[in-house]
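Lecture notes, part 5. Sequence design as translation. It can be helpful to think of inverse folding as translation between two languages: the language of shapes and the language of residues. The source text, in structure tokens, appears below.
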């Protein structure tokens, strides 16, 4: 797969979006009223991306590791 951006450009875009969007650890309503998480990930049914199963597995693994550590 060929990227339209270099790794350096992608890092810059991510850094800018992290600043622009901010971070919220719990769900919130964005400026359009859509359910959103993290750094602006829209999870509103029919509107946003939601989560992929792979992303959900990463969250689950992190939850398990955190619980075991505690």
């Amino acid at each position: 797969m060929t990227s339209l951006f270099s790794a350096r450009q992608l890092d810059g875009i991510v850094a800018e979006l992290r600043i622009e969007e901010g971070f919220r650890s719990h769900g919130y309503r964005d400026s359009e009223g859509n359910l959103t998480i993290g750094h602006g990930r829209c999870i509103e049914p029919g509107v946003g991306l939601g989560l992929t199963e792979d992303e959900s597995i990463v969250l689950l693994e992190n939850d398990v590791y955190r619980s075991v550590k505690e």
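The translated text above is only one of many valid answers, since several sequences can fold into similar shapes. Helices lie at 7-21, 53-69.
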